[in-house]
Write a structure and sequence with these properties.
Strand 2 and strand 3 form a beta hairpin. The strands form 3 sheets. Strands 1, 2, 3, 4, 5, 15, 16, 17 and 18 form a 9-stranded mixed β-sheet that branches. The mean pLDDT is 97. By secondary structure, the chain is of the alpha/beta class. The longest helix is centred in the middle third of the chain and has 21 residues. Helices cover 41% and strands 21% of the residues. The protein is globular, with a radius of gyration of 21 Å. It has 15 helices and 18 strands. 52% of the residues are buried.
Length: 446
Amino acid sequence: MLLIGNGRLITRSQALPYVEDGAAVTDGETVKEVGTLSDLRAKYPEAEFVDARGGVIMPGLINVHTHIYSGLARGLSIDGFHPTNFFEVLDGQWWNIDRHLTLDGTRACAYATVLDCIRDGVTTIFDHHASFGEIPGSLFAIKDVCRELGMRACLCYEVSERDGEEKCAQSIQENADFAKWAKEQNSDMVKAMFGGHALFTISDKTFEKMVEANDGMTGFHIHVAEGMNDVYDSMKNYGCRPINRLLYNNILGEKTMLGHCIHISPAEMDIIKESGTMVCHNPESNMGNAVGCSPVLQLWKRGVLIGLGTDAYTHDMLESLKAVLPMQRHNACDPAVGWCEATGMLFENNRAICARYFKKPLGVLEPGAAADVIVMDYKPFTPFSDANIDGHMLFGMMGKNCRTTVINGKVVYKDREFVGIDEDRINAWTMEQSKKLWGELNHRAY
């Protein structure tokens, strides 16, 4: 049993949203009680005390769309790579990287990603993986790393025809094998979706194979209309828009999540809403790839469940939160919009997305919720209360403020040090894999 206290408590629960000198008690994998530190100390004197040191105690953050396979790309420059459009970014960088990823490379990417997530207070990730250099066993390799480091994860593999029929078949099989395993395990720490890359890399024949292999085990996690490539391909080769293609191929539904959804029409938004399909927005990645601005305000107005991801541009969810607001206001030419949508995506919708996969409530601190708790070093110099929490989140707090991370009732990061994790050993091995990958990409030693 843990007693995490001596700080301001933010619960994201309507029953008790904020306690000035608060604490949370966890018992095993769940939150047992929240309240004032004095009351809970008296009630649970035997609990191990985790000192927040005057910081902010809050639920662990959730990232509903990231890419572990980009974990070794930090600082990488590929010789001769000078993209001028989105397709060239994909083909020259990301597809180039994943074509060189072996299982060891995938493991190294997972280590790098998960350690950074823990440092930034992220306790749950939805990953969309690709390693066309070695596909079989890749999701299981990621699962093993997540289990070792204590991360809660929902995993899938990126089906695509871009590297031929054999690789496409392997990617479908990897999804099916992992989804079957996850269903049998029924663990609240590891879940599965059925992944797919951009629609312009997937034919209707492949969609049919994906649906057959999935056999209703789980939902789909697929990139949609991130660039205009999907729109052009769907209109030219299938006579309809991307969302219609997904509808006709039985991909949509309450367990399916569509990444990006930038170039979609009002009619497509209505289809997403009526089918109960989820959407994830990735603001910094969209800006970085110069692909456009997702119609977040319109999707929100229609009642679409739209969450916030990073596309692995960062692992800091608060950094992405800060990007959503000015991006949407700039796009709308209106300084009075976006606040509720930005904070709602991260703090409300991400946990609602999790609720469609995980049994215990995530993203909230209340009795019965998952024991995912973080402590942020944040000592405000302006008034701080339940009336302005989100203002402090948007303009004051960053992922790097995280000092302690508890996942599933286990302290994995305490006072800025990993607990039970040999970070130096992992970093040394990951560096070896990075040098190997970079050497293969640039045909020279590092």
